[in-house]
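for the recovery benchmark. tokens below, seq after
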């Protein structure tokens, strides 16, 4: 068996560790008749045919064709170390907009894990990589002629028992770790849509009798997806549709709360949010405050979105007769809405949550510190607006209004109100 080592976007620390612990490799070579046909650190630089290619480092733009050529020649391809497996510093640099000018001038861009360019047969993790693990992988190939993925931590691998998908929410039980977070949150807001089913290792999170979300009483708040640590529950993703709208010269409307949240998540100033959105391709940016759409001359209960409207109708039906229209923006198909509220996806398409926009902005390789800053209008004065924020306040506000129906009360069901809305970037959601 012939083995070749290659290095791309990395410090070569993984390969130096192999050289430093070469006694372990030498024993393997002798035992199974393995030949190293390429390793420049050992003075072996020939380009002979090889069975196993071991690649260290992230893949940059200038490496892509070379990596593909190596893949075509090798029977097995192994990603060596964290840079090849996860992308390492190169990937982080481009993801967060930190770029070295001297490399850009030479034509380098990207910086991605190996598996995003070619098929990877096996991984040797670590920074630097574990020589013992590499020995195990090579020995397995030499003995069995195959290679394990080394992706499982346990002998038991959970299979997908159920997928619930209604186009708005998607629950994949195969990804679920049954932490119970979604169940507790759903109970916390009085919806009680999610529960556990079956026993033992087959326990899953699902709706009662596996009925659809809406049949089970889902109010579309999106909190289950926001707080799921493994993306077993997700909401409709509008990123591709939003990018298409931007490419066609569409505009974007962004809620003022979303401006503040986006700035906090990306570590920029609120005044840099408008230039950021224009950098993504949008022709015009408009900032709105949904509270400005409410007629405060009336008397009644104003749900902030369709989620609060459903909540009142299903959980507090006695208050339904006092419901007023929730603030709903009238937008055309060439407009993207950016919001902190997942429920807004029911009203319009495409809608980007702050969470989606944070990921999109980072993937677009934008250098945030270079964005100009525009002057924003001062926030609308909301001091005279009575807003019930979170499940407990919402419940108390509805009871108080029923006992004395007067004025306007605005309901925001997310814990902490829409300032902690379900569409926010996860690190901001620290109430749970």
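predicted aa per position
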């Amino acid at each position: 068996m012939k083995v070749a080592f290659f290095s791309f976007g990395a410090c070569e620390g993984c390969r130096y560790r192999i050289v430093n612990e070469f006694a372990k490799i030498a024993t393997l070579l002798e035992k199974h008749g393995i030949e190293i046909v390429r390793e420049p650190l050992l003075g072996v630089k020939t380009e002979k045919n090889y069975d196993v290619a071991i690649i260290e480092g992230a893949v940059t733009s200038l490496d892509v064709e070379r990596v593909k050529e190596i893949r075509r020649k090798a029977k097995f391809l192994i990603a060596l170390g964290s840079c090849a497996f996860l992308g390492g510093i190169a990937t982080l640099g481009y993801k967060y907009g930190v770029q070295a000018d001297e490399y850009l001038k030479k034509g380098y861009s990207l910086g991605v894990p190996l598996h995003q360019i070619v098929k990877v047969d096996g991984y040797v993790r670590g920074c630097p990589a574990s020589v013992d693990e590499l020995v195990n992988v090579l020995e397995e190939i030499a003995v069995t002629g195959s290679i394990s993925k080394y992706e499982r931590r346990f002998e038991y691998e959970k299979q997908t028992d159920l997928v619930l998908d209604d186009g708005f929410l998607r629950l994949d039980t195969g990804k679920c770790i049954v932490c119970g977070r979604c169940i507790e949150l759903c109970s916390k807001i009085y919806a009680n849509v999610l529960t556990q089913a079956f026993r033992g290792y087959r326990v899953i999170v699902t709706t009662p009798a596996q009925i659809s979300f809406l049949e089970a009483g889902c109010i579309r708040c999106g909190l289950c997806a926001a707080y799921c640590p493994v993306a077993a529950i997700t909401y409709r993703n509008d990123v591709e549709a939003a990018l298409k709208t931007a490419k066609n010269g569409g505009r974007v409307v962004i809620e003022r709360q979303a401006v503040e949240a986006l700035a906090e998540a990306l570590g920029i100033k609120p005044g840099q949010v408008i230039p950021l959105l224009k950098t993504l391709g949008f022709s015009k940016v408009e900032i709105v405050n949904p509270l400005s759409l409410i007629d405060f001359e009336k008397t009644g209960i104003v749900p902030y979105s369709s989620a609060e409207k459903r909540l009142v109708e299903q959980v507090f039906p006695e208050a339904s007769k006092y419901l007023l229209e929730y603030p709903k923006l009238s937008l055309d198909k060439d407009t993207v809405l950016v919001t902190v509220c997942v429920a807004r996806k029911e009203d319009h398409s495409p809608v980007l949550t702050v969470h989606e926009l944070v990921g999109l902005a980072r993937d677009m390789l934008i250098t945030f510190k270079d964005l100009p800053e525009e002057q924003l209008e001062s926030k609308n004065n909301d001091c005279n607006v009575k807003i019930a924020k979170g499940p407990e306040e919402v419940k108390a506000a509805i009871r108080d209004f029923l006992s004395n129906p007067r004025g306007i009360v605005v309901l925001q069901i997310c814990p902490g109100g829409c300032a902690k809305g379900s569409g926010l970037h996860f690190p901001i959601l620290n109430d749970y």
